[in-house]
Amino acid sequence: GQQLNQSPQSMFIQEGEDVSMNCTSSSIFNTWLWYKQDPGEGPVLLIALYKAGELTSNGRLTAQFGITRKDSFLNISASIPSDVGIYFCAGRAGGTSYGKLTFGQGTILTVHP
Amino acid sequence: GAVVSQHPSRVICKSGTSVKIECRSLDFQATTMFWYRQFPKQSLMLMATSNEGSKATYEQGVEKDKFLINHASLTLSTLTVTSAHPEDSSFYICSAEGQENKAFFGQGTRLTVV
C-alpha cells in the first residue's frame, strides 16, 4: 500500500526560528494536505495543494506540492509558542482509492519562548 | 471553512456495553465520511469509509461487526463500538469531504472502557 514518510519526527526550536518539515511518498498523489493537531483535538486543515509545483501560503505557513508529485514540504516562519502541536501531511491518490487520505507519521513541534 | 461536529468528546463506558459516536457536517453535505482511530503520539489510522445510503467500506483488519457504521443522511454518520473492551479505548476521529476535496475533521472522541 501507499506509504508516507514524514520528517523530522520531532523538533525543538526557539521562538522566532523558522521550521521546515517534509513528506515523501512511494507513489504519486493528486492532492497534498497539511494539518495541525493540538492535544485532545481533531486535526485542523492548514493548507491544501492540488497541482505539481504549486506553492501556497497561509500567513506564516508555506507549503509546496513537489514536481514529482511524490513529496511536499511545509515551512513555518518566525515561529511562536502557539505553533506547538503535531503537524501531519496527508496525501490523496486517485483511482480506486479516491477520497482516502494517507497520513504521515507526524512532526511534533515544540517552541521554547 | 467547513465545520464537522463530533459528539461526545469524551465517554467512559463499562466493558461489554456499546457506545455510539456521532459525526455531523454542519454547513455542508457529505456523501462520504471517514472514521479514524488514533493511539497516543501516533498518526491517524483509517478504519472505514462511510457512504451515505450504502454499506461502509472497512479497512483490512477492522471488524465490521464490532465497529458499526451508519450513514443515514448527508450530514450524519455514526460509529457504534459494540461490546466494548478495554483494548478499544482510543481516540476516534471522523472526517468529511467538503468543497475542493478538502477533508475536515471533527473534534475527536476519547473513549475509555473500564
Detailed description of the structure:
The complex is a heterodimer of chains A (113) and B (114). Chain A has strands at residues 4-7, 10-14, 19-25, 31-37, 44-49, 55-58, 61-65, 71-76, 85-92, 102-103, 107-112. Chain A has 113 residues and is mainly beta. In chain A, strands 2, 4, 5, 9, 10 and 11 form a six-stranded mixed beta sheet that branches. In chain A, strand 6 (55-58) and strand 7 form a beta hairpin. Chain A is globular and about 40 Å long. The mean pLDDT of chain A is 93. With 114 residues, chain B is mostly beta strands. Chain B contains no helices and eleven strands. Chain B has strands spanning 4-7, 10-13, 19-25, 32-38, 44-51, 57-58, 67-73, 76-81, 90-97, 103-105, 109-113. In chain B, the strands form two sheets. In chain B, strands 2, 4, 5, 6, 9, 10 and 11 form a seven-stranded mixed beta sheet that branches. In chain B, strand 9 and strand 10 (103-105) form a beta hairpin. Chain B is globular and about 40 Å long. Classes of the chains: A mainly beta (113), B mainly beta (114). Chain A binds chain B through residues 31, 33, 35, 40-45, 48, 50, 88, 90, 92, 99-101, 103-106, 108, and chain B through 1, 4, 6, 32, 34, 41-44, 46, 49, 91, 93, 95, 97, 100-108, 110.
Annotation field: number of helices of chain B: 0
Distance between the termini of chain B: 37 Å
How are helices and strands ordered from N to C of chain A? EEEEEEEEEEE
Secondary-structure element string of chain B: EEEEEEEEEEE
Helix run count of chain A: 0
- Summarize the amount of helix of chain B as a percent range: under 10%
Main sheet record of chain B:
7 strands, mixed
Number of E-type strands of chain A? 11
How is the main sheet of chain A built?
Answer: 6 strands, mixed
Average pLDDT, all residues of chain B? 93
Instruction: Supply Rg of chain B.
Output: 13 Å
> Which bin fits the share of residues in helices of chain A?
under 10%
Indicate the overall shape of chain A.
Answer: globular
Mean pLDDT metric of chain A: 93
